[in-house]
Amino acid sequence: MKKRINQYVSWIGKNDWELKKFHGDEFTTTQGSSYNAYLIQDEKNILIDTVWLPYDKEFVTNLEQEIDLEKIDAIIIQHGEVDHSGALLELMSQIPNTPIYCTNNAIKSLKGQYHKEWNFKPVKTGDTLNIGKHTLTFIEAPMLHWPDTMFTYMDGEAILFSNDGFGQHLASEFLYADEVKQDDLWNQALTYYANILAPFGVMVKNKITEILKMKLPLNMICPSHGLIWRKNPEQILQKYLEWADAYQENQITIIYDTMWNSTRKMAEAIAQGIQNIDKSVTIKIMNTSKDDKTQVMTEIFKSKAILVGSPTVNNGYLHSIAGSLEMIKGMKLKNKKASAFGSYGWSGEAPTQITEFLRKAGFEIINDEIKQLWTPDNAMLQDCVKYGEELCQKLK
User: Fold this and answer.
1) Taking the model in full, what pTM does it have?
2) What's the Cα-to-Cα distance from 151 to each of 2, 38, 118, rounded to whole Å?
3) Which residue ranges make up each domain of the chain?
4) I want to staple 14 with a disulfide (CB 3.0 to 4.6 A). Which of 42, 51, 291, 390 is the partner?
5) Which CATH class is domain 3-243?
């Protein structure tokens, strides 16, 4: 269904209310998502991006109701991932000679995924496409979040089409960010950044700084997922600069897995110790085998320090902790502190292994790990409380 943005630009995407997982099983989408494609109708007609493969026929059918496909003069693919390019096969089967403007890396990506020799037109930063009353300017944005990514700026209307930059996984009957509940909007925007763009913070800062130096008028930012930034669109640019700058809140997140609840009891006692010292700090306690990993990573992203706990099993830590540690390493977080803890029966290597992993992942280790043999009694739990108190003192 088309939604008109202005005289020249329409949203022609797809709201996916049913979407629960994204990037395979990696990202949980609690409020669905949208695949935003845009149709520009000037002297030339330009399609910017498509939708995810399962909706390819629906997309092309809807597009045909808005414009004769033969009258589409060019397609701009800003990023080759299938949630944006998935309808190309269906569309190009009907208009096979239509030029596709994209980066050189996107050509490699699209050829690698679809194995087609379409009419590719490679572009780089500063290249332009005149479409009549307006000119489109291409801005390469590598690693936001793929090497092939680019943005497209439409002069006159002052619209930045930003693909995966500045988006949210948020399906909505509304079109604009100012029309939805702001808590939902910003929670989804932060979750999206933490789980998709956090590893590329340096590139994010550099690209936004570059765009700001261009001094482009900016009326709207139109991402490829979620809501369009219409009122004060610069606010999301400033938030990205904040999030990309070793972001942290006054929060400590404790993640753990447990077999017979001993490590859980330790986690709760450590949390009590932290609270004894600083009642203003937000403490999140999350079981990595039960809590959603997308939310776990979001809370870690927000935190100034994390504690990671596991019992020792087969001379190592539990598999949900192993998976979480790998995800944490991939986020490439900066300026965060960490410590480890865990219970054990006869060997007890897990906390030391966790400490070394976190150190190699760039965390500052603020305390030696604490281990408890078998099920902690009241005295052992008091040791954990003291451990939390000492750790909190070191964070002040």
Assistant:
1) 0.95
2) 22, 13, 21
3) 3-243, 253-395
4) 51
5) alpha beta
